[in-house]
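The methods section describes the discrete structure representation at length, but only in general terms. An entry of this sort, consisting of the sequence and the corresponding backbone structure tokens, reads as follows:
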Amino acid sequence: MFSWRSLSAIYAGELATARAAASAGTIMTLSSWATSSVERVNSVGPGIRFFQLYVYKDRNIVRQLVKRAEMAGFKAIALTVDTPRLGRREADIKNRFNLPPHLVLENFAALDLGKMDKTDDSGLASYVASQVDQSLCWEDVRWLQTITSLPILVKGVMTAEDTRIAIEYGAAGIIVSNHGARQLDYVPATISCLEEVVREAKGRLPVFLDGGVRRGTDVFKALALGAAGVFIGRPVLYSLAVDGEAGVRKVLQMLRDELELAMALSGCPSLRDITRAHVVTDGDRIRRARL
């Protein structure tokens, strides 16, 4: 059970995560729906930060938000493409999920869109249905390029076909993601989709893995399968609950230490030495059995 101290740490989570990520020399990605604004996160000091964008029906809101992120020094836009509709999150429905009364979606507070209405099911689901643009399409990648000079990463790609289209429409990078497996039951694990995407990308743009990373050995496997890097979510949430900013620093250091140990034990003195030969996938086993 979380204590009030740990809950307070989560509520200040974006700021703590931004400081910890900067200290570790790594990237922090801030959600559109964060409870700290792009300006507040920028105020904690320098750091490499991406902005995860949800596209609203009112495109003027999107323009304002992207421009604010750009002015706050964010380095890229992570366009979320797998959530034009929210999946059926039964835990949220059962618990009638909503934001605590003292919290708002701070990026939208000045637009009177920072609160979620109370409902009989999920306040988040109702908010998404009322605000997020379900007509989101590939042309919107090009539209975003007309309103910002920031590189646009497409978050939510899991197939070779979508990789080809993302490249065609000018994406600067791809994040292989299934939204933490919260959108669709029985969706494949992202690590099982990674190699297909990397193979299709052919080095034309970086491919990142999002989801399921819990240990440094998971990072090692992703790099071996061609990822340029990984994103983590739940480990940060858990570490915030345990010890706030210090917890995030600790989990980032643990992942680094575990990766370095895995590299040493696998005979890899540098990241460049991690190759496809270092992992055996289920697909490899099936192909070998057929020989």
Remarks:
- Residues 13-290 form a domain with the TIM Barrel fold (CATH 3.20.20.70).
